[in-house]
Write a structure and sequence with these properties.
heterodimer, A: mainly alpha, 5 helices, about 0% strand, extended, B: mainly alpha, 9 helices, 2 strands
Chain lengths: ~110, ~230
Amino acid sequence: MRLKYLWILLISLVILSPIGLLAQGTAWGEWSVEELEEKGLGFVPQGLQQLSALWEAPFADYQFPGLSESFGYVISGLFGVSLVVGSAWVVGLWLSRKEASEKKKGC
Amino acid sequence: MHIPDGYLSPQTAVTMYAAAAPFWYLAARKAKVVLTARTVPLLSIFAAFAFAIQMFNIPLPGGTTGHAIGATLMAVVLGPWLAIIGMSITLVIQALIFGDGGITAIGANVFNIAVVPAFVGYFTFRLISGSSSTDSRRWVIGGAVGSYLSINAGALLTAFELGLQPLLFHQVDGTPLYAPYGLAQAIPVMMLGHLTVAGFVEALVTGMVIAYLQRANQQLLALHHKRQEA
């Protein structure tokens, strides 16, 4: 099954991804603690303040330390795509494993 | 639409994990039957597609941003159960590695962005495409309409989960503990953006990819469908 063109399309999408950085503003309901403070709410909800620090993602906001915003975004995109492809492949192969007896039956 | 950590109370977060879990279980069982060495690469590439599509932030009316999700597209090619698996993998990596969506919110985000959109999109697609052949325009329309409905269903659920927080989880004086905006704000603003721009982009992307596959690789497009008929 010729998937080559899908891969090309995928990589092209990632290279074009900085277009996704042009949009100003944040997604509703996805504000960071700092962004919430700026919103004029007057306070940051306590539970939110505590839980928001739960996890420190290595490449938060798709940025790479030391790289410009756009370049970092593309690299994150390529990195993320590789991770997704790799993980999905591993998970897929693991989920699809069949017993020897099943293999003989099916095919 | 990716809910971060802190916006959902622990109770809500656990409830949403409990809502998503049965679908993971059923999807894994389904995968055991239908996934083969041939379809694993497809799962990978479409999951990656969803990841890439979601990097394109779009300005929405109201001043916020949104993005397409790609769940329906995955469901059309792979069926809803594999779409749930693929999308879940994408969501977990987004949360863990890029901080896009919280860890406690994975259950909710999977339910809102993978489970519900996959089924809404898939069933709508099947309804519209019916018994028409793979190269029929009804496949494109079905995918477009299905994906439009799917992203809006997801947005509505997200708005609902966020909007309920101040109502249910607050300090004695009423101060919200988690997501601070109630249903009266969450639902209109989320739906405005997704019913207009984001839904349209989702429909456009889904329709265009299906149309492309109709010309470039019909065999791939029909894969799940053939399996259903077999």
